[in-house]
Amino acid sequence: MYGQGCAVGDFDNDGFVDLFVTGVHGNRLFRNLGGGKFADVTDAAGVGGSGQDWSVSAAFFDYDNDGRLDLFVANYVQWSRAIDFEVGYTLVGIGRAYGQPRDFPGVFSLLYRNEGNGRFRDVSAEAGVQVRNPVTRVPAAKSLGVAPVDLDDDGWLDIVVANDTVPNFVFHNLRNGSFKEIGAASGIAFDSYGQTRGAMGIDTARFRADGAPRHPDQQLRQRDDRPLRRPTRPLHFTDDAITEGIGPASRLPLKFGAFFFDYDLDGRLDVLTANGHLEPDITKVQQSQTYAQPAQLFWNSGRTPCYVNVTPDLAGPDLFQPIVGRGSAYADIDGDGDPDVLLLQTGGPPLLLRNDQDLGHAWLRFKLVGHPANRDAIGAEIRVRCEGRELRRTVMAARSYLSQSELPVTFGLGKARSIESVEVRWPGGAFQSLPIPALNSLTVVRQSGP
């Protein structure tokens, strides 16, 4: 297959994390059998797609809170070799080049409901995630990124979809098996001037002390500042990229992968982006651009503007070597508490970057096991109160661009040494208080209750 992205999750709640791989004209679901072995169960599960889809990002999440992980698959555009040659896109001085998404028809993304017997059912139409152009009635989506997130804090996961050159979608969970698309009303569909963006990667987090979720989605057009959207009231957001310090510094690079993470364990969420252009010879027609581009790291200062661009002398040169960046993910690969980074690139090997910060900051890590909630506890929120601050993190592997990060959740505590309380809000809204864990340790938490 011509693979694109992936999603991880224990869809059958047997304790082994399964793997879904997206691709051009066909997807694959691999069931984890344990013992290091997988079985291709795509056909039996019914998640292979139509055979004509160009599937990109995907996410396992439990949209109906029945304890089983459902699956959202973001499809990009209608593409085939014949369509591509018919478009025949070129750049002056270069010749044949990547075609703009505006030249290709839109498509529908897919929502599969987990039926609990090893099979999924396509509920895209009945669930309300098939969006049509209001005038032409053709499929409107050109999706690249997806972020399941509880936008209104009601215990039910909503869906934010990053679209390329068409409005972004926000699917508000109506808690009856269906969604309502409110992208324009929420302020996420368009930029501040009412224009569509070229959105790619996406992540969501509460990066301010007020606990409200933000969305740093990516855009293709180099003239745009990176949007960092901030809620002004429930389900309403404003673009604060410029005032928070990310916009100007991120304007020139072409950004794909993006995620929030606390790289220095100070308790504030930083941002990393993977950058790289589409065209190998772009410098011939646009001297300000290069094909390979360094990643960007933004440190959360806790002030206004919030984000400060980190330079190689502070974070080391390896992270900033120019690559044709695409996907990005993080995980604590060496068990020392801080998040390490994986960067994917076109035409080159993955780069695994070990985090060697040594600031003496304390941390906590949690691995949640749900029952009756889904076993991976995807969608659960952990709240840690320490020395007058409340930190909130959500269990969610789906983030960035075509990528997945680890499921365990990390809390950096900075110089704090006193924990007042720890509690979990499980999918569906049930709360569970936890004993105060030891600092600098991983705690496995099993859901209590029926």
Keywords:
450 residues, mainly beta, four-stranded antiparallel β-sheet, 5 helices, 30 strands, 5% helix, globular
Structure description:
This protein has 450 residues and is mainly beta. It has five helices and 30 strands. The chain has a four-stranded antiparallel β-sheet. Strand 25 and strand 26 form a beta hairpin. The longest helix is centred in the N-terminal third of the chain and has 7 residues, at 81-87. It is globular and about 65 Å long.
Strand content of the residues, in percent?
25-35%
Q: What is the tally of helical segments?
A: 5
- Extended strand count: 30
The parts where pLDDT drops under 50 for at least 5 residues are 217-225
In the sheet with the most strands, the strands line up as: 1-2-3-4
Gross geometry: globular
- Taking all residues together, what is the mean pLDDT? 92
* Rg on CA atoms, Å: 21 Å
Helix content bin: under 10%
Q: Classify the secondary structure makeup into a structural class.
A: mainly beta
What profile does the largest beta sheet have?
A: 4 strands, antiparallel
How far apart the termini lie comes to 43 Å
Q: Layout of helices and strands, plus pairs?
A:
Elements: E1 3-9, E2 18-23, E3 28-34, E4 37-40, H1 42-45, E5 55-61, E6 70-75, H2 81-87, E7 90-91, E8 95-96, E9 110-114, E10 120-122, H3 124-127, E11 143-149, E12 158-163, E13 169-173, E14 179-181, H4 183-186, E15 229-233, E16 236-239, E17 255-261, E18 270-275, E19 296-300, E20 307-309, H5 312-315, E21 325-331, E22 340-345, E23 351-353, E24 362-369, E25 381-386, E26 389-394, E27 409-414, E28 421-425, E29 431-434, E30 441-446
Parallel strand pairs: 24-30
Antiparallel strand pairs: 1-2, 2-3, 3-4, 5-6, 6-9, 7-8, 9-10, 11-12, 12-13, 13-14, 15-16, 17-18, 18-19, 19-20, 21-22, 22-23, 24-27, 25-26, 25-28, 28-29
